[in-house]
Design brief:
Length: 83
Amino acid sequence: MVGAKELETTITRLCTGDALEIELDLREVTFIDSQGLRAILAAREACASHQAEFFLIRGNHPAQQRLFEITGLLDLLPWRESD
């Protein structure tokens, strides 16, 4: 389990390092709150400002999908299909 602040710190560290691409896999995530959404948006911005690609893999929980729909982020975030 990773908290929002830890997620944001880790992704920022990776984006400012040598990472050319970050993929955040949400398949095992069971809960995302407003802090989690903020961390995802901050991670996307950090990657963009350091020319690193940022993608999300959709989660398996319907409530998570609904959260992205309600907030209007479903169509704004870069999604990638899982392997």
